[in-house]
Design brief:
By secondary structure, this protein is α/β, with parallel strands linked by helices. It contains 11 helices and 15 strands. The two termini are about 35 Å apart. The chain binds nicotinamide-adenine-dinucleotide.
Length: about 375
Amino acid sequence: MNNKKLRYGLIGAGSNAERKHLNNYMTLANVELVSICDVNIESAERLAKKYNITKVYSNYEEMLDKEELDLVSICTPNFLHAEISTYALTKGVNVHCEKPLAINANEAQKIVDAKNQSGKQVMIGLNNRFTNEAVFLKKYIDSGYLGEIYQVKAGWIRRSGIPGRGTWFTNKDSAGGGVMIDLGVHYLDLALYLIGMPAPSYVTGAIHQNFSHTTTRNRNGYKGNPNGIFNVEDTAVGFIGLQNGATVNFEFSWASNIEQDKTFIEILGTKGGISLINGEVKIHSELLETCVDISPVLNPNIKLKNEFEHFLNSILTGEELIAPAEHGVYMMNIIDHFYKAASRKEPVFFEKVKDKVRLLSSF
Ligand SMILES: NC(=O)c1ccc[n+]([C@@H]2O[C@H](COP(=O)([O-])OP(=O)(O)OC[C@H]3O[C@@H](n4cnc5c(N)ncnc54)[C@H](O)[C@@H]3O)[C@@H](O)[C@H]2O)c1
C-alpha cells in the first residue's frame, strides 16, 4: 500500500456508522476523516465532535459535490443505498455500502452499472465474510475437503431481536423487507458465499408476522416507535433448489418463542461436513471408519478491521474485493424471488442461464 491519505466521508450517522465504520476507519493511518452527513444534523454533529471531523452536512449531494472525497461509507436506511451509491459513483467516489446493497435486484444492478461506468469500487458491508471462521471455512471448502456439496442449512433466530419496532427497519418502503433483508442478507449470504454462490434454480418459502403488536421483543439497546409502521415479516423460512442439484434451507427470525438465540450454517458434502454454530466452527468427517468431529484452533486476529483495510487496499492496488457489488445483485435476486414465492405460496423459478457472470447481473 502506498502512503497516500484517502479522503473519507460518512453518510448516515446512526448506530452502525459509529460502531462499525468510524471506529475502524479512524484507526487506519492512510485515511483522513474529512466529513460527515446526516439529515438529522444533530446526529452528524455529535459524531463529528467525537471523532474530530470538521465538515458537517445535512445533504449528501452537497457533501459529495464539495469535498472531493476518495471514499464514503453509506450507513443510511436501506432504501437510500442505491440512490446515494450511484450519486457518489458519478462523483468518482469509491463506495463502502452497508448491507443490503439495495432493496431489490434492479436497484442493486443500478449500482453495479454506475460502478462499471465510473471505474471506482463498491464494497458491501458484509462483515460476516471477514471473520476468522469464515476465512478458514472458505479456504477449507474451496480446497475440496467436503467432496460434493449436496445440502446447506443457514439461519439466524432471535428470541427478542426486532431492531427498532416501528422504526424504518419495520417499514417495507424504507427497509425493503423484514428479517430476510436484515439478517438473511448476512447469513444466507455467508452460506452461499462459502459454497461459491452457485446458480439457483427455484426458491420457495413463507413469511410470518406475529410480533408486530408487542413491545417486549425489541432488540436490547434499539429504540422503538409505538406509533410507527410494522408491515414486514418478523420470520422467514425457505428452501432453494440450486441448478447443480444441491439444496439449501433457511430460517430467519427477529422474534420467536425459543429458549436461546442461534446463528447457524451447516454445509454437508459427500466427504465431510462443516458447521458454524453460534460462531463456533467444527468439521465433521470420518477417520479409520470412525465418525470424528474436529474443532479447529483459529488465529484470534482482530476481525472487523480486515474489512476496512481490505477496501483501502482494493482502492489503492485494485486487489479483488471479497464482497463486491455484483454479489449484492445475486443475493437480492434470491430475496426478490423468495418474497414472490412467499406471496404466491408457490415456488418461483429462476431463468436458466449457462454462464455465471450473466446470472449475477441478469435478473
Ligand atoms: N453490517 C452490519 O452488521 C449492520 C448492522 C446494523 C445495521 N447495518 C446496516 O446499516 C444501515 C444503517 O443502520 P443503522 O442501524 O445504523 O440505522 P440508524 O437508524 O441507526 O441510522 C441511519 C441514519 O441514517 C440517517 N439518514 C436517513 N436519511 C438520510 C439521508 N437522506 N442522508 C443522510 N443520512 C440519512 C438517519 O438520520 C440515521 O441517523 C442499514 O442499511 C443497516 O441494514 C448493518
